[in-house]
Amino acid sequence: MAEKMEDLNLPQSAVLKIIKEAIPSNASIGKDVKAALAKAASIFILYLTSQSTQTMQAAKRKTITSQDIYDALEELEFGHFVEPLKNCLKEQQEGKAKKTADKTKLKTADQPENEEEEMEDEEEADEGEEKDS
Asked: What confidence score (pLDDT) does residue 112 get?
């Protein structure tokens, strides 16, 4: 656990980015608001984690799962966040899967499709070297 409560604060830049997405473009916020929202978000995370831990321990597990988070949100009367959170996590997982698939496609595109093609490429390279000599 963190030694000081200040160690648990979220980065101000991340909090500011979230705030800017939530307010109109012509609105501004005070420095104290950034700090207050960062602290509130940290406390909410601790609160939700604590409740999730209780759910996890009741199930005799050592790992908090996303279902524990959903259950904790319901228990803490934040059930209206469950579906948007599930959708967000689904989009994130789909994005990761797409990136992985794209990386795999790039790797396979750089490699010859079969050994015969690779051997032909090597033979052509050898012939080219012989002609240069």
From this structure: 55
